[in-house]
Structure formats: C-alpha cells, structure tokens
Amino acid sequence: MQHQVLIVGGGTAGITVAARLLRARPDLDVAVVEPSEHHYYQPIWTLVGAGAVPREASVRDEAEVMPAEATWIHNAVVTFDPESNGVVLENGDRVEYEYLVVAAGIQLDWKAIPGLAESVGSGGVCSNYSFETVNSTWEAIRTFKGGTAIFTQPNTPVKCGGAPQKIMYLAADYFRRHGLANKTRIIFGSASEGIFSVEKYARTLRKVLQRYGVETYFLHNLVELHPERREAVFQHVTTGERVTFTYDMIHVTPPQSAPDVIKASPLADAEGWVDVDPYTLRHTRYPNVFSLGDCSNLPTSKTGAAIRKQAPVLVENLLAVMDGREPGARYDGYTSCPLVTGYGRLVLAEFDYEGRPRESFPFDQSQERYTMYLLKKYVLPEMYWAGMLKGVA
After folding, report:
1. Angle at Cα 258 formed by Cα 253 and Cα 260, nearest 5°?
2. Which residues are known to be catalytic?
3. The pTM is what?
C-alpha cells in the first residue's frame, strides 16, 4: 500500500488535518490509520463527570467523522520507518507514503501509579480521563456524604492541563448545594508549582480555591494508592518527602506520555514526543514528516483548541512542501482552556507560547461568566462536530 499523505491517528488532530487537506485539494490521496470504531469529544467529559451532560453525547462512530474522500486504514501502527518512508501495521502490512502526519494522541499510563489501574471506577476512585471511567466520577460525587475528597494532577503533561481542577470545582459546588460543605475536606494534590501558569487567570482561580475552602498541596505528585485502606500517597517533587491522606473519594488524573510506538521510533525527541519545529510543525530531521496535537513536543497545552489553530498551519506548510516551497505559516502556541469553576461558571483562558492572553471576546475573560459556561456546554461541541472535524472551523 502507498499513499501521498498518510495520517497516523483518527482523533481530533488527524481528522481535522484530513478534512482540511481534502478541502484544499480534493484530488489528494489521503489515508488515515485509526484502529478505533469510535470517536470521542473528550472536552465534554468534565461536564459528564459532574452529571451535567450524558456520556453518550461525547461519542460517535469513527466512520461518521472520517472524511468520505479519505482511505480509512482500520488498523494500528506498530513501527515507524521514516528512513524508508513507511510504517508497519499491527497485522504485518507495510504502508508507504510520500508525506506523513503523526497525530497519534497521548497515552494514559494507569499502571504508573501502583493501585490505580485495578481500583479506578470503584471504591471512591474515579477519573474523567476515559470514556469507560467518566461515569464513575459522577457516581462518586452524587453518592458522597461528606469526608475527604482528593483531586490530583500528575508530574507529566496531560490532556487539557486545567481538567484536573475543573472537576474539583464542580464537585465542590455540588457539595455546597447539597449541604455538605461543612462536612467536607477538599484536597488538591498537584505536581505543578501553582494553580495556573498564566497569572491573569491564576488570580481568579486562587479566589475560587478560597471560596470552596480547597487545601492545596503543590509540588505533590500522587505515587501510590492503597484502595483497601483508602489511602493516597503523595511525594514532594523536589524534596522527595511523602505524605499520606485517607480519602472518601479521589479523582485521579493518570500520568500521561507519548505513545510507546512513538517513543521507540526515530521520530521521537529525548522525552519520547514527536520532534517538530514549534512554529512550522515540520519534523526537525525528516522534511516530509509533520506532527501536531498531543503526541508532538510543541511546548503548549495539549488541548483541542490548540489543535484547531495548529491544523491550518500544518496543512498550509505541508502543501507548500509538496509544491517545492518552504513552509511559511507559523503557529504561535495558541491554546485555550475553558476553566469551569462551578455549575454555570467558567473562566475562558486563552494564551500563546509566551503566556500572553490571546482572548477572543471584547471583555475580561479572567472573570467567571455564565455565558462562557454556555459556550462550553452547547456551542463548542457543535463547533467541533460540525465545523472543526469538517475542516471549516
């Protein structure tokens, strides 16, 4: 098998790039390698975990989002061979390409924390980070009767850096509305240095933490779970000191990394991510290879909003290279994080590589707003399914 453009990954990044390429040049031979039967709109899982949206709203058949003009290779890549412009599939087939786009997403390393993989989804251990476990979060919140509720953020890059704290605010709001605030201790154990990297939004979030009475343990990474004793062990990332908390519920954001197949490939940087130029999205060593989204080493938050800005740049630059020109489009690091701070409240953070706010609306987006909550719940999902995945938004 051989294709002009081979896209590895049929998630947000892969489908968006495929759609944009085929809109620009309908005669292109584009193939997408994707093993899954289903496609997920993962940003809505925050609201699913809080009982505000049904889980079924987040999933559609992969066939429904795959561009009709693209060839869907219903398999998975097990080996990248960029020296010979090919990949090897799980079934042993080899697929060759003229140009490669790597959009393989991020890997959830549930087993990296002893006790997590076998306990998530039961016994008060929950997580919004998979379709299979997200309903367990709502179950844990809904049945909580008071005690200690812990929320974690690991010492690795994660899908949507704000998601670990969003569900905490929603849970805290739910507890307050149901008379549990005075019976509840809320702990945020985060390996990060602070609540948010951009000070304009961090100022608001510190007030939110104070409003809900959250105890913050920054530079604390979850390293062990003892579900039989309902204990969570955290380790300070600089001193190595450990502290153990007992919990009645714990929402765990699992450690995450580049997919193993990329780590083992010549495409990877020292940390295992696809090594690309941060502005052109072109590989630093293989000129016919591009990458975007969660599997790349772009130094910005791993969000769907970032992909929405990366995809047009990648497509423009890929087409330029195909035409014998140098890539001229530049990605400035734009990303967005809709920080839900309660039911009906949201801070819409938007910023670039330099941490400078890049706001879309003519008002101060660092303030909590009901309109921005409606944007996340109703507008952004429709923009995703009907616009972004069609290559028009």
Report:
1. 115
2. 160, 337
3. 0.97
